[in-house]
Design a protein that fits this description.
Largest sheet: 7 strands, mixed
Shape: globular
Oligomer: single chain
Strand content: 15-25%
CATH superfamily of the largest domain: Aldehyde Dehydrogenase, Chain A, domain 1
CATH class of the largest domain: Alpha Beta
Strand order of the largest sheet: 15-16-17-14-13-18-19
Helix content: 25-40%
CATH architecture of the largest domain: 3-Layer(aba) Sandwich
Structural class: alpha/beta
Bound molecules: NADP nicotinamide-adenine-dinucleotide phosphate
Distance between the termini: 78 Å
Number of helices: 15
Radius of gyration: 24 Å
């Protein structure tokens, strides 16, 4: 029997498909470990690719108003939506996603494109953003200063992580393209199949003008050496790679802005005296965060703070939910959690679990290891079973605050129920993407939101009045900020029009007030 054909993924650069000619990377099916595709970027002229995007893509986008750019995003959404079923299948095979996981990624991409398409429409025929009212420099308004946000004249280089090949492309591209900046997107090599097909569809259907969206499939090569002072880099991935990009010689010398979304030890906090509906939402959400995409979400809950007197109850209720998780071939309907996406991620998760256990945590549900995945050949696949841990002395267990195990693993941290104790524990994470707080004591909630907020880019508060409608905290929403201080990288993405800030230059323009108001399309004050 002949081996199934392996796809060769190319890059779309300088307006055409190109293949590298050197060391080839292989993409695998993490369930069977079978090779699926190869790609290479060796020998590609990445400097020319960036220049082509600057010269062709940038002017094409800047010629369009926000409404015109929004229409491009809407066309992208429609073209990708038509391919949804095929993309889901690819995510199952290349990412180890269940169909539900795959939809979370792909539908999240579609929703984000749709949100920014609508935002473009609402911003209308303007080409740039005005920030706030003018400043009067001389009394009477004759000499004024306006702040404008103008699209930068470079390229937005997007370097993405392996876990969201669809959403990662879309969420970054939506904001950059709406701002007026062409994009060069580089997916993580290991799961690039979905991103590749999305871009292939856009090219086949000629949705975008030349140079507006380029794709680099494979290693980053010397891309960063060719960056210029009008370019930007938005990166999602590990803190190590983020630091390497920030410290890159060319990035530093050209002053290239870098947005980093990196490791995050997100927390969930159960307040004392939470109502039943609120408590149930926490149990539901923690279960989702631990098992959706096998816990490979940057926003997944890693640390769960519960009042010490409710610890046993929470262990029992979470364990009951986790007993319903069937790990195995994610293509099967009777499986609800697949493998980790790569052999390297499995190795890293296994090492991480050992470190947590050596550092003051104990297992209260599950057993470290691959378990017995359903429908999978003996010993095959990058599986990690769900694991619930407890660190009885949270402030002494440093690993749980320092190490993000990127898999179906979370740790319960008992605390005395005070906001001060919750803050002391949460702060040990050194900055995270999201914190979720579940409670019904309003003064407590108010204090907690204000005390825990500074350590996070987003805080999700759930009380009994809206517990049945609340989204699980790991869901990133296009209208709300995504990013986090400190260890999380200090980045900001999305958040409606705020997401455009990174791709635009804030310029103060001062002069003849009424004349400037006319030039800039501002109301004369
Ligand atoms: P990674 O190894 O840092 O890779 C991320 C991206 O960076 C990939 O596209 C990778 O390309 C590229 N890359 C690798 N070396 C580079 C270099 N020297 N210069 C420029 N780019 C380089 O991370 P990962 O394995 O994809 O993801 C793992 C971690 O990312 C997770 O453990 C998690 O902590 C974090 N993460 C954070 C978020 C967030 O939003 N905060 C989201 C997802 C993941 P290749 O694939 O070609 O090597």
């Amino acid at each position: 029997m002949s081996e199934p054909a392996i796809a060769v993924l190319r890059s779309h650069l300088s307006g055409r498909w190109q293949s590298g000619d050197g060391r080839v990377a292989t993409l695998f099916d993490p369930t069977t470990e079978a090779p699926l595709a190869t790609c290479s970027t060796a020998g590609l002229d990445l400097g020319a690719a960036l220049q082509f995007a600057r010269e062709q893509g940038g002017p094409a986008l800047r010629a369009l108003s926000f409404a015109g750019r929004g229409a491009l995003l809407q066309a992208m959404r429609e073209a990708i939506h038509a391919e949804r079923e095929a993309l889901i299948e690819m995510a199952v095979r290349n990412g180890g996603n269940t169909r539900g996981d795959a939809k979370f990624d792909i539908d999240g991409a579609l929703a984000t494109l749709g949100y920014y398409a609508d935002l473009g429409k609402s911003l209308g025929e303007r080409h740039f953003l005005l920030e706030g009212p003018p400043e009067n420099i001389v009394r009477g308004g004759r000499v004024q200063g306006h702040h404008v946000r103008l699209p930068r004249r470079g390229v937005a280089v997007h370097i993405n992580a392996f876990n969201f090949p669809a959403w990662g492309l879309a969420e970054k591209a939506a904001t950059a393209l709406l701002a007026g900046l062409p994009v060069l997107s580089k997916p993580a090599t290991s799961t690039a199949l979905v991103t590749y097909r999305m871009v292939e569809v856009l090219v086949e259907k000629q949705v975008l003008p030349p140079g507006v969206l380029s794709l680099l499939c494979g290693g980053v090569g010397d891309l960063l050496d060719h960056l210029g002072p009008q370019d930007v880099v938005a990166f999602t991935g590990s803190a190590d790679t983020g630091s390497r990009i920030r410290g890159h010689r060319r990035v530093l010398s050209a002053g290239v802005p870098v947005n980093v979304e990196a490791d995050s030890l997100n927390s969930t906090v159960l307040a004392p005296g939470a109502a039943d509906a609120t408590y149930d939402a926490l149990i539901r959400h923690v279960h989702t965060e631990m098992t959706q995409k096998a816990g490979q979400k940057c926003t997944a809950t890693r640390r769960i703070l519960v009042p010490r007197d409710r610890l046993d109850e929470v262990i029992a209720d979470l364990s009951e939910r986790l007993r319903g998780v069937v790990v195995g071939d994610p293509g099967r309907d009777d499986v609800n959690m697949g493998p980790l996406s790569t052999a390297e991620q499995r190795r890293s998760a296994e090492e991480g679990i050992a470190t947590l256990l050596a550092g003051g945590a104990r297992v209260v549900f599950g057993r470290p290891g691959r378990g017995e995945p359903r429908g999978v050949a003996e010993g095959k696949g990058y599986f990690v079973s769900p694991l619930l841990l407890v660190a009885d002395e949270p402030l002494q267990a440093s690993a749980v605050h320092d190490l993000e195990v990127f898999g179906p693993v979370s740790t319960l941290l008992p605390y005395d129920g005070s906001v001060a104790a919750a803050e002391a524990i949460v702060a040990r994470g050194q900055g995270s993407l999201v914190c979720s707080i579940y409670g019904d004591d309003r003064p407590w909630l108010e204090q907690a939101v204000l005390a825990l907020g500074p350590y996070h880019g987003r805080v999700s508060m759930v009380d009994e009045k809206m517990a049945d409608k609340a989204f699980s905290p790991g869901m990133v929403l296009p209208g709300l900020n995504h990013g986090g201080p400190g260890r999380a990288g200090g980045g900001n993405e999305l958040g409606g029009t705020r997401g455009l800030d990174f791709y635009t230059q804030r310029t103060a323009v001062q002069g003849n007030g009424p004349l400037l108001a006319r030039f800039l399309g501002a109301a004369v004050e």
